[in-house]
Design brief:
Elements lengths: L23 E2 L13 E6 L8 E3 L18 E5 L6 E5 L4 E4 L8
Parallel strand pairs: 1-4
Antiparallel strand pairs: 2-3, 2-6, 4-5
The structure holds zinc ion.
Length: 105
């Protein structure tokens, strides 16, 4: 009856994001840096109520593009518009026209 279970150490520590080592984060362009009507390399937000363009941030000048890696990598993208975090396929990126919310005639 004197067995003390260290219930404090279990539970809370096990809450880690379920990200596999192959998942990486990508810098995205801030909405205020995006120009409506321009084409951006990126994805459409998976959040149906958002659906805006998540644009890959331009690599710093002098930096080598990291696209030489495996082309079908899963990446974690946080939508700069709605804050939704989702997994996207690197190979699924494309040219997306940025149309901000409220711009529809
Ligand atoms: Zn979004």
């Amino acid at each position: 009856m004197s067995i003390k279970r260290t219930s404090k150490s279990t539970g809370a520590a096990a809450r880690q994001p379920a990200a596999s080592p192959s998942v990486r984060h990508i810098e995205v362009t801030a909405p205020q840096q995006m120009v409506p009507g321009d084409l951006y390399s990126g994805w459409r937000c998976k959040n149906k109520s958002c659906g805006l363009v998540i644009a890959i941030a331009a690599p710093r000048s002098g930096a080598k593009p990291s696209s030489a890696q495996s082309d079908d990598q899963l990446i974690v993208l946080k939508c700069p518009h709605c804050g939704d975090e989702n997994l996207y396929r690197w190979s699924a990126r494309g040219e997306q026209q940025y149309t901000p919310k409220g711009a529809a005639s």
